[in-house]
Design a protein that fits this description.
Number of helices: 11
Bound molecules: adenosine-5'-triphosphate, magnesium ion
Largest sheet: 5 strands, antiparallel
Mean pLDDT: 97
CATH topology of the largest domain: D-amino Acid Aminotransferase, Chain A, domain 1
Order of helices and strands: EHEHEHEHHEHEEHEEEEEHEHEEHH
Distance between the termini: 6 Å
Number of domains: 3
Length: 334
């Protein structure tokens, strides 16, 4: 296979266009330099030449000026900055420019970023979703019928990387619910999603490839012992050294098979391509519920791909190269 000029679209930490009043975690989805270094070495291992194209705004400018360097194929890991279509910005521009791209298309990226729409779509494929309701204001939160009994969980409807989530996201009564909905709407400029609180163990399943897609080993995520929320989501809000991790239960064969089956079903229902990560949490009875699909999972070496590679005893670059090659095969470029 000839060496390909491989365009990379990304949003680097430190480059978020902050506005007055933005919450501290507004840029939490942006990537560290280490992610790009890993992707570049994976692409070189496949014999390709990575070309840093920058953010979706940089791509827009280069296309506008007719100054885009020659690119054979692209990989977008840019999350965009605002709105529920933001992960689709680069894929749409690439499509308009006639450049094939790895990963899911803009429609899947947008429908999955909106957790309410994603839940509705996977539910039609028989994947259990938690009772939920989208609330657009504190006033609605005061009067609307609730999706379940307290405790409830309140999160932004279209954010990732645990943006907007903190220990107070678990609410025990109507007054706390109203406060949390008001905070989400004001800070993140979107509706709040209110869900039944799932107290049980949490798992994440990475799915790769296409027709057939396959799941990589299921990973358990530790919970914060105090709140029962995923520790990764709340630890940045805990005082240093205060985190108390808890990993309830054991991942037996039957549960692992069920999570894999549900992840594959959700991946297919959402028409994901090449790679994605599905998150699940258990209720008090041990039943698994879909939380969300991440078709832009981080390639940061400290994230799931790094952990999965370590389990296999190889470098993250090697695993990521194998995953990217599945996308190239889909495009007829491998
Ligand atoms: N209904 C729920 N009940 C209990 N905990 C929940 C619920 N929904 C979300 N959480 C907790 O909040 C965390 C983040 O939620 P979710 O996965 O929906 O959002 P995200 O910000 O897109 O996630 P990520 O950090 O995986 O990118 C979950 O990992 C889980 O620990
Ligand atoms: Mg998640």
């Amino acid at each position: 296979m000839a060496s390909l000029a491989f365009g990379l679209l990304f949003d680097l930490l430190g480059s978020f266009p902050r506005r007055p009043g933005d919450p501290d975690d507004i840029d939490a989805e942006f990537e560290p330099e280490a992610t790009l270094v890993l992707l570049e070495s994976a692409l070189r291992a496949l014999g390709h030449e990575p070309v840093r194209l920058g953010s979706p705004f940089d791509l827009l400018a280069q296309l506008g000026k007719g100054e885009l360097p020659p690119i054979d194929v692209a990989l977008n890991v840019a999350e965009g900055t605002r709105g529920r279509d933001r992960e689709g910005w680069a894929p749409v521009l690439l499509q308009m420019a006639g450049i094939p791209a790895l990963g899911s298309d803009a429609l899947t990226l947008s429908a999955t970023l909106d957790k309410s729409w994603a839940a509705a779509l996977v539910a039609t494929a028989g994947v259990p979703v938690v009772p939920q309701r989208s609330l657009g204001s504190a006033g609605e939160a005061e009067t609307t019928a609730l999706p379940a009994c307290f405790p409830l969980f309140v999160k932004p409807r279209w954010e990732g990387t645990a943006k907007g989530i903190r220990p107070s996201s678990r609410v025990e009564d109507r007054a706390a619910l109203v406060r949390e909905v008001a905070r989400i709407v004001a800070d993140y400029d979107q509706p709040a999603l209110v869900e039944a609180f799932l107290p049980g163990a949490e798992y994440t399943v990475t799915v790769v490839g296409n027709a057939p897609a396959r799941a990589l080993p299921v990973l358990q995520r530790a919970l914060d012992a105090e709140s029962g929320i995923g520790l990764h989501a709340v630890e940045r809000h805990l005082p240093p050294g205060a985190a108390r991790p808890r990993t309830p239960g054991t991942l037996g064969g039957a549960l692992e098979r069920e999570l894999v089956e549900l992840a594959l079903r959700a991946y297919t229902a959402l028409e994901c391509r090449d790679f994605a990560r599905a998150d699940f949490k258990l209720d008090a009875q041990g039943r698994a519920y879909f939380l969300e699909m991440n078709p832009l999972p981080t390639f940061d070496p400290s994230g799931s791909f790094g952990i999965l590679a370590e389990l296999e005893g190889r470098a993250p670059e090697a695993l990521v190269a194998e995953v990217l090659a599945l996308g190239l095969a889909r495009l007829g470029l491998a």
